[in-house]
Design a protein that fits this description.
Blueprint: E1 2-4, H1 14-17, H2 21-28, H3 36-40, H4 54-57, E2 69-85, E3 88-106, H5 111-115, E4 120-134, E5 137-142, H6 150-158, H7 163-166, H8 187-195, E6 198-203, E7 208-214, E8 222-245, E9 249-272, E10 277-302, E11 305-312, E12 316-330, E13 334-338, E14 342-349, E15 353-362, E16 366-375, E17 381-384, H9 393-402, E18 406-416, E19 421-430, E20 453-469, E21 473-489, E22 505-521
Parallel strand pairs: 1-13
Antiparallel strand pairs: 2-3, 2-22, 3-4, 4-8, 5-8, 6-7, 8-9, 9-10, 10-11, 10-12, 11-15, 12-13, 12-14, 14-17, 15-16, 16-18, 18-19, 19-20, 20-21, 21-22
Helix pairs in contact: 6-8
């Protein structure tokens, strides 16, 4: 049995790690999340205000508060994912309880309010924490009898690299301690050569390597499977101020500190029709912080109508990735090989965001609201740890080519059955955040071995809920069904021969969120 274990080592190089647009999108793509009232109306609160989660969308909404308030929100997630890989159906589920937000609102009437004069009536402050995104996801995909294999991709990465460079028996050298240090070799091809999953062809005349090929027999089929496990969250701590001018114009500003912790573990495996196969495990954790600001305004042209506008600045996130891989193989040879830890410090400049909204008060019982959100994902940028972009010129160009600017349309309504009890409902839709059929480009000497990626097709939200209010306290309940439709690509077809194109899969992830908010007013 062949086996190799390497002690964890620090290995950091921007050029070889090569972040992709899909990495950036997964970390920064926004979602509807907040208090139960906000959730039950699909987050369509930009022009309404008066809710602590509305403040993160439009800080002018803080000016609507007439009383100080303390509130918190918990969330129970029931997730179901359904996969279809060329006709093979799979499913998986996940259950989790989490914490959505905490807020402290200070509603401060000014002397103008007390004396009945026009001008600044309220000068309000907020201290809030909001979970912006929950990364928790678990998915399972399985296929049968495919003509393409990841071993073909391993051979592609090996190119015409001499076998001596990939062979551990030839190390240490005067320049490198192992193949992992050699900048002429991709880590995927090192693992492929060590395991015997790819073979070297040497020209007998020139005695030079011409190419590498898969060790599979011609016409041999593979049955792949894929397991994804994600965890972590993105959160935002905010200090906000908003002013109420004559109960007609509300303006606000938030200063925000964002934090991210995202952990991913994947297992891609193939069973060969002639016997044997392999399992490739990839683990990656990303953590970091960033700062931004939001500004906004709400205007009431007439008593029953409000219009809102807000701008969210880009966030400069300082991030650290730590990842490693392990290949277990049991085909012509049997054993395993593990890579060193691969560490990278870098920055992401997230997209800016524009929100335009309108709300209508219907008599004394109801309200209807709509909101349009534009996220400039094509403006996402990678930078090195010093804030320079030179090492990421190609990656940033691919962001512009492979990502879409998205628009989210949110509509929601509320009806007061009694003075204390209200019913709510809403709907939201976000278009595809990735360009259809876009590839994942990886450098030929990349240290990454997670070749798979997801193309986002659409996201829909269906929401509803109810709430009970007294003068000094309230409690709200909400249910939200979020349906995300993705295309799974095991590796990019753009770098393999046409007859070796990978078979893609569809993955539909349904999140059922049950949200409860408890608040005190004083």
């Amino acid at each position: 049995m062949k086996k190799l274990i390497l002690a964890a080592a620090l290995f950091s190089t921007i050029a070889l790690t090569a972040q992709t647009p899909y990495d950036a999108l997964n970390l920064t793509q926004s979602e509807i999340r907040g208090t139960a009232r906000y959730t039950s109306m699909a987050g369509a609160f930009g022009a309404l205000g008066g809710d602590v989660s509305a403040i993160k969308d439009n800080p002018a909404g803080l000016g609507i508060f007439r009383k100080s308030e303390l509130s918190t929100t918990v969330d129970v997630l029931s997730q179901y994912s359904a996969g279809n890989w060329n006709g093979t159906q799979t499913q998986d589920d996940l259950y989790k309880m989490g914490f959505n937000n905490f807020s402290y609102i200070i509603a401060h009437p000014t002397w103008r309010k007390e004396s009945g004069q026009e001008g600044l009536q309220y000068s309000n402050w907020s201290f809030t924490y909001n979970k912006l995104k929950d990364y928790n996801r678990r998915s399972y995909l399985k296929g049968t009898d495919f003509g393409s294999s990841l071993t073909d991709y391993m051979a592609y990465f090996a190119g015409n690299t001499p076998g001596s460079i990939l062979n551990f028996d030839n190390y240490p050298t005067s320049s490198y301690n192992s193949p992992w240090d050699n900048l002429d070799a991709s880590w995927l091809s090192i693992m492929g050569a060590y395991s015997g999953l790819i073979n070297e062809y040497v020209n007998p005349t020139t005695n030079s390597t011409e190419y590498w090929s898969s060790d599979l027999n011609i016409g041999e089929k593979v049955s792949p499977s894929y397991i994804l496990q994600e965890s972590g969250s993105a959160g935002e701590y905010s200090l906000g101020w908003s002013g109420n001018f004559s109960s007609k114009l509300f303006v606000g500003l938030n200063l925000n500190l964002q934090s991210i912790y995202h952990q991913t573990s994947t297992l891609y495996s193939e069973a060969f029709s002639a016997g044997g196969g392999f399992k490739l495990t990839n683990s990656m954790s990303t953590s970091g912080t960033g700062v931004n600001f939001n500004v906004g305004a709400i205007y009431m042209p007439i008593d029953f109508m409000r219009v809102g506008f807000s701008y969210h600045s880009p966030t400069v996130l300082s991030l650290t990735d730590v990842g490693n891989s392990k290949l277990d193989f049991y085909a012509r040879n049997e054993g395993y090989i593990s890579t060193p830890d691969n560490t990278l410090d870098y920055k992401i400049v997230t997209p800016s965001q524009l929100n335009v909204s309108a709300g209508f008060i219907v008599g004394t019982k109801g309200l209807i609201s709509a909101e349009y959100v534009l996220n400039n994902y094509t403006g996402t940028r990678f930078l090195d740890s010093n804030g320079e972009s030179m090492d990421f010129l190609d990656e940033n160009q691919r962001v512009r080519e492979y990502l879409n600017d998205t628009r989210t349309i949110k509509v929601g309504g509320e009806y007061k059955v009694t003075d204390n009890f209200s019913l709510r409902a809403g709907y939201a839709n976000t278009n595809n955040a990735t360009v259809r059929n876009s590839p994942k480009y990886m450098l030929e000497n990349t240290t990454r071995s997670n070749t798979e990626y997801f193309l986002n097709n659409s996201t829909n939200y269906f929401t509803g809920g109810f709430g009970y209010r007294e003068s000094s306290w309230y409690i709200d309940f909400a249910y939200m069904k979020k349906i995300t439709n993705d295309t799974f690509v095991p590796y990019s077809a753009s770098v393999t021969p046409d007859h070796l194109e990978p078979v893609t899969a569809t993955l539909v992830t349904t999140n059922n969120n049950f949200v409860v908010t408890l608040g005190l007013k004083f």
